[in-house]
Amino acid sequence: SLIRGPFFFGVAMRLGETLDRIGATPKVLILRLRAVPIIDATGVSALQNMIERCERNGTKVIVTALQPQPERILGDMGVLARVTRAPDFAAAIEMAKEMVKTE
Fold first, then answer.
1. How many other β-carbons are positioned within 10 Å of the β-carbon of residue 71?
2. Residue 64 three-state SS
3. How confident is the model at residue 74 (pLDDT cuts 50, 70, 90)?
4. Which residues pair with 85 in a beta bridge?
5. Rounded to the nearest 10 degrees, what angle do helices 41-57 and 9-22 cross at?
6. Helix (H), strand (E) at residue 97
7. What percent of the chain has pLDDT over 70?
8. Going from the N-terminus, what domains does the chain have, and what CATH number goes with each?
């Protein structure tokens, strides 16, 4: 999922709704955050909830291309310790392929 612009609660809620519409549980979810310059506390909370949901369902989460402010906030809040990080989307795709192969 490519997310553009500030990551606030509403954006995170739409992401959760998108997961609901998918139906089948994905093995890996890649969050492309290169176009997210800032994230606020409500966005962090909603993202944490989505990651918890993914963990419960066995979905691995990969986060790519963090800008400085989101990287700092997500690191401080412990979110980055719960996900796999990739420098860019191409690397995330390769990581996802390996994750799926090892299951």
1. 16
2. strand
3. very high
4. 63
5. 20
6. helix 89-101
7. 86
8. 2-101 (3.30.750.24)
